## 1
Amino acid sequence: AQALLDGLTAAWGREPVALDPAAGELLARRPWPGNVRELRNVLERALLGLRGARLAPGDLGPWPGDAGPWPDAGRGPGTAPAEALLTLREMERRHIARALREEGGRVEAAARRLGVPRSTLYQKIRALGL
């Protein structure tokens, strides 16, 4: 899981994120029928809402495959219960909308902040209806 986190943060141009030992234990207890792809999706979703440099159990969102929380997982400060139920598409939409809002609607500045080419951001804006 830490290796996947390292790869994702590097690909996204983000500062490295450490996997909290308690979160690592939760991930290790879960049978992963979807293998690495499913684990990667859980970590991507957690990273989208993460506001720090440590991924805690409460940042993992819902247990894959149902709407409930991870067993014995407390809610961390980075994840509200309503956010945990968002789809990856909706989280991406909100993240892009926030970047645009914080950059005063300037697409070029928002693209730079998000670490994507301006043309990619324009495509996502159209696709997500922003």
Note: The chain is about 55% helix and 5% strand.
## 2
Amino acid sequence: MNFLDAAIDAYVSGNSSSEPMLLRELTRETYLKVLQPRMLSGHLQGRVLSMLTQLIKPKNILEIGTYTGYSAICMAEGLAAGGHIHTIDINEELQPIAEKYLNLSGNKGRITMHIGNAMEIIPSFNIPFDLVFIDADKSNYLNYYNLVFDQLPIGAVIIADNVLWSGKVINQAEIENDSDTAALVTFNTYVTGDKRVENVLFPVRDGLMVIRKTAN
């Protein structure tokens, strides 16, 4: 589902900073070799993630859902000096492509890729993450949010992708019959009602929920 008219979408992309060549190459290889290549963040969302990260200047980033590494490379553009990204994906088949481009991006040593179940890996970290990007299985969004929340310092930011889910979140039939849609509606409602945060849902691509922790 396109949330913007195709011509407007092209205009928006054309009037945003260009996509680095390496990320174009990563996009091409993802579309050639990987199932469901639309899961890639892509040009516009990638530039949004880069911009937000450069504004936040996080020391430590946690990414839940590496896919082929596009979003991690974008967020690395805003890492503070000496900063580090821990990125988790359950699909080990994606690891060769992701690690290839993470290394080509010049971020070797600044990005660590973990393969496995994020619900099991996250508790092993003892790191005050300044930024968390959630872009994994939709059924666990709220679980990820609750799992990381107490580890985050005041002022930390959580960004959740796909929270509009191709517009299904406002379709009652989809909510009743699709577990992912129902989980995302539950997540969006919970975050909006959480008095410990401020949040804005941006209609960028498939929806980005940007959340700032204001209290414990």
Note: The first helix runs from residue 6 to 14.
## 3
Amino acid sequence: MAIKVKRVYDEAARDDGARVLVDRVWPRGLAKGSLRIDLWAKDLAPSTALRKWFDHDRTKWEAFKDRYFRELDEAGGAGEPLAALLSQARDGDVTLVFGAKDTQCNNAVALKQYLEQRLEA
């Protein structure tokens, strides 16, 4: 079992496991029927205000993660969507799918870290 991250524009693979879109807005240029995802977890995405504040500025990465994790915690760990995602991750592979161009500093990478911390606890 593993949690992976992958750009939404990359090909789906057999070993992706459950594919979960973790963006609040639908990815640009893709029709809803064209994307292979099992779940669109909008509620696990950063708030619009936080997303706009971060604006993919790498100098804000650590502060973004702190604020994002705080948002998830304050939402009761984002409730049922988070519990379902943690359960899936315990049972098999999960791929967090995202639309950002930056593959190293984005909400899916941060969410992966958050989920792994919860799984270890």
Note: The CA atoms of residues 18 and 94 lie 5 Å apart.
## 4
Amino acid sequence: MDEITWIYQNNAANTVRYVLGQKAYKMIACIGINPSTAKPDDLDSTIKAVKNISEFNGFHGWAMYNVYPQRATDPDDLDQKMDPNLLLSNIKLIGESIHYLEIDTIWVAYGDLIESREYLPFCMSTLYDSLDSLNLNWKIIGNPTQKGHPRHPLYKKTESPFLDFDMEKYVVEKLKSHTKTFELTTV
């Protein structure tokens, strides 16, 4: 069995997780809503699904990022107000990590949870804008939800093929057109 090279970055208090993954020569990035309790050698059900679906689709490694990096086992437990410093550090780390790991494919996987906080659509559209110059391949599994969002991986089959996704159209039609704009000044 090959040695696992973990990718993991959180804050000292463990209230934030920026990335969790397994480094390999062909990697995919998955973007969820917010991190739960998973860490290296202790994956939760969502991360296990991400790993298995990624492997089924021919990827040897994966990196799990999130629209917002605050840890919460339930998105309803996220802070009511967005911390702009936290969002900006998340966006910066994701961009640097995707570049460093030479990732060219992004799987968007959060379902209707994107609507669980008013600021989450803004966070995702801001993240997309920051990654736009990287010319990434955007993917989803299955058809979007009835509300038009990319499906969450938790209850999908391991044998779920990745489908091309017009992320620009989704961001313009679903996120930016229905999103409150937030100030990103830092303190």
Note: The chain has four helices and seven strands.
